[in-house]
Structure formats: C-alpha cells, structure tokens
Design goal:
about 350 residues, alpha+beta, 7-stranded mixed β-sheet, 4-stranded antiparallel β-sheet, 15 strands, about 35% helix
Length: about 350
C-alpha cells in the first residue's frame, strides 16, 4: 500500500502538524478518486468520511425532492470535505458532488474521534484546524447571503436560539465560576477548566441599542450571553445594515479572536438589555496552547456551535433560493397572462 504520509503532510489543512500526528493519520488513510458528477455522499445518510481534497472541484449542495439541487459552495484542491461525523446525529446535512475528476485522501471519522479522545494534543490540533475552516466558510456564506439582493426584503437574521429563556438560569448573586459552569456552552466542563476561564472573565452588561463591537476593529473578546438579544449585522452604505444572526439567551458571541488577522467581520449590537460574561480571547488562546486538554475541550465546543451556525446559514441560502425561484415563477406566470 502506498505510504501517504508525504501527501498528507503537504496538504494545506495539515500544514505544520507534528510528525507523530502525521504518522497517526497516514496509518489509516487511503487515496480515492471521484468521476465528474459522481455523488460523494448524500444528504441524511450516515456520516463517517473525512476527505482531504488534493485535486479537482466539489459542489456542496442541498438535495431537494422534486427540484433542482441548490448549490451552496464549491471547494477544491487543498480544502477539506465533511465533518458531520464529529457530532450526533452523525448524518450528512447536505450533499457533495464532484464537478470534475477529483482526487482526495480518505480518513475514517470514527477512527479520528477515537484518536482525539486518546490524545487531546492531537484532538486540539484537529479541532483548531476544523474551526478555522468552518469560520472561513461561515463568513463566506454570510457575505453571500448579503449579496443576494437583500434590498428585496428576502433576507432576515438567522435565529438559532440555543436554549429557551426558561432554561437559562439567573446570574444574580452567583460567583463567576458558577455563572460559567451553568452556561449551556460550557456545561459539563472540568472544574479546573472553569478556574482557568474565570481568570480571563468578567460579567458585563449592554444597554438596548449599544454597539458591542464594530466591523474592522481588533477582535480580542468572546461573550457568553446569559440574557438578552444581540443582532449581528453587516454595515452597508448610507448607514444601512443587513441582519445576519440573532444571538439570544444561552448563546455565544464572537469568534474572530481565534485566528489571524484578529478583526471583527461584522457589527454586533444589543437589541435589548443584555447580560453576558466577557472572556479575554488573547488569554484564552494562550491557555489552549499551554494546556491542550483544556484546548481540546474548548475547541470541540467551538466547532460544534460553528457547524450549527454554518448549517443554519446554508438553510437560509436554500430558503432564499426558493424565494427567488417562487418570485421568478410568479413573474413568468404574470407575463404569460399578458
């Protein structure tokens, strides 16, 4: 069997990975090829594959019954495909189809998960790289939404509330560590990790209408929202802003502190009085590097939320595509009656 270690080491997703981790990946890797228009995986099927694309192009799309597939994104050589094997229910949320002859390295997601749990240093490295890719795709898809004619009123903020208001407890009179431990994003984290986070945290409040951060400013903050409502939006010309995401009770706000260039890609504004815990992102990055057990735990949580948000934005793209199609159908029918 061909030794794929050198090929894996050259892939941009794994650039700089420690030699022992490259050896781990190479032991269970194999080359695979897809013909033009071949379905790589189908929506709702069991997910266990992880692909390092080395050459070719792949379309990520939504397969809709009795309708054309809705294109969501095209990826190519140097990119990765598939991460639904990371978290339950371990099924594909979208379809992937080769657009041309495509070559890839196949990795078994189940084996990767076991390796992550056995070696948190490897787990941290893998989750860190996945988070970086998902953030990039999330930002790309959000900006694509904005570009799809928001002036027509088809675009509304994605509203993905993590927990109903009744399930998020009050923070009154509770220590900072207790507030952290009760937040849904951190539920079940080790006590020593809460202590580490508390060193970089403080409670904060925002008034209705207050700007929390602005596009282009330096990003060094991470917020755990306890109560309130925050709108993520992209500013446009003439003082107009396009809504992107609604953040509510039990959710988290702000990822741009994780990776260079460390600046905000959107504005965030409180829509009502909002209480949160402020975490200093730069310090958290240092803690992750110093203690990769903590880093793996935190980044696994980050990746899960990022994937949920990417899926939500892609669903909105599908809805927007359907709205445009309905508008075109209505327009065609109207012309037909003339």
């Amino acid at each position: 069997m061909k030794d794929l270690r050198a090929t894996i080491a050259q892939h941009s997703f794994l650039h700089g990975l420690k030699p022992e981790y490259l050896d781990l990946l190479a032991r269970h890797a194999r080359e695979i090829e897809f013909n033009p228009r071949q379905i790589i995986f189908r929506q709702n099927q069991a997910a266990y594959e992880f692909f390092l694309i080395t050459q070719g192009r792949v379309a990520i799309e939504s397969s809709v019954a009795r309708a054309d597939d809705v294109p969501l994104q095209v990826i190519g050589g140097g990119d990765v495909l598939g991460w639904s094997w990371l978290f339950p229910p371990f099924t594909w949320h979208f379809q992937a189809r080769a657009l041309e002859l495509t070559e890839a390295i196949f990795l078994d997601g189940a084996r990767l998960l076991v390796a992550c749990e056995n070696d948190h240093g490897f787990g941290y490295e893998l989750m860190n790289r996945v988070a970086k890719i998902v953030i990039k795709r999330l930002q790309t898809n959000r900006k694509r939404l904005v570009g799809l004619n928001p002036a027509e009123g088809l675009l509304a903020a994605v509203d993905e509330t993590r927990l109903p208001r009744a399930e998020v407890g009050t923070t009154a009179g509770k220590s900072l560590e207790i507030q952290l431990s009760e937040h849904p994003f951190l539920k079940g984290m080790k006590a020593e990790h809460f202590k580490m986070l508390a060193e970089s945290a403080m409670p904060t409040q925002f008034d209705a209408g207050q700007l929390i951060f602005r596009e282009g400013d330096m990003a060094n903050r991470f917020y755990l929202v306890h109560h309130g409502k925050v709108l993520l939006e992209l500013p446009q010309t003439e003082g107009r802003a396009v809504p992107i995401q609604m953040i509510r009770d039990g959710d988290v706000l702000g990822w741009s502190w994780l990776f260079p260039p460390y600046y905000w890609h959107f504005d965030a504004r409180a829509l009502e009085p909002t209480s949160a815990v402020f975490l200093y992102g730069t310090r958290i990055r240092e803690q992750c590097e110093a203690d990769q057990d903590f880093g793996y735990d935190l980044m696994k949580r980050v990746v899960q939320v990022l994937i949920q948000r990417l899926q939500a934005v892609r669903r909105q793209l599908i809805e927007l595509h359907a709205g445009v199609a309905r508008g075109e159908t209505a327009s065609t029918a109207a012309h037909g009656r003339d």
